[in-house]
Amino acid sequence: MKINVDAGVKCGGGVLGIGCVVRDSGGHSQFASSTVITREIAPLQLELQAILLGIQVGIQRKIQRFSIESDCLQAIQLIQKKDEGCHDVDCLLGQIRTLLLYDSCDGISFIFREANRVAHVLANYVLTNKASAMWIGADPSCASQEISLDMPNPF
Question: Domain count of the chain?
């Protein structure tokens, strides 16, 4: 399984969003969510929150093997750095690094936005609707076009 995450930020909007989608090797959605964050936080911190949420979803849903993908290179690089700096996100980094040690988690990697479209749409869903949503075993209708574009091409 692959878990894609993304953060949605609209400056001055008062609402931030996190998108998360769990997909199997065939590209089918097993779980998806759009989560509202009602406090202003920095975009990097929100991206790290999205990554943390993705790992938590994988563990809580008892997925046997999963990896996390994010389109925020800065967040991925911070997580993979071993030296502890004086960052305002050190607590989040510690939580993420601890959860990455779970046997079921195969790690975290950077992907380009074009390969992370579903999570991006789910994060932005919150900015438009100002509400959280969850889909279990069904594709989110708000991301149907992106899901079809992400599906593996038949031979």
Answer: 1
What pLDDT, on the 0 to 100 scale, is given for residue 44?
92
| Mean pLDDT confidence for 64-81 | 94
Q: Is residue 155 part of a domain?
A: no
CATH number at residue 7: 3.30.420.10
The tally of CA atoms less than 13 A away on the side-chain side of residue 40 is 5
User: Could you give the C-alpha distances from 148 to 34, 68, 81, 142, 152, in angstroms and in order?
Assistant: 19, 20, 35, 12, 9
Q: Which residue has the tokens 């069904």?
A: 138
Cα torsion angle, 9, 10, 12, 17, sign: negative
Give yes or no for residue 34 having a pLDDT over 50: yes
Record the pTM. 0.91
Q: Tell whether 15 is covered by a domain.
A: yes
Which of 78, 69, 74 lies closest to 150, judged by CA? 69
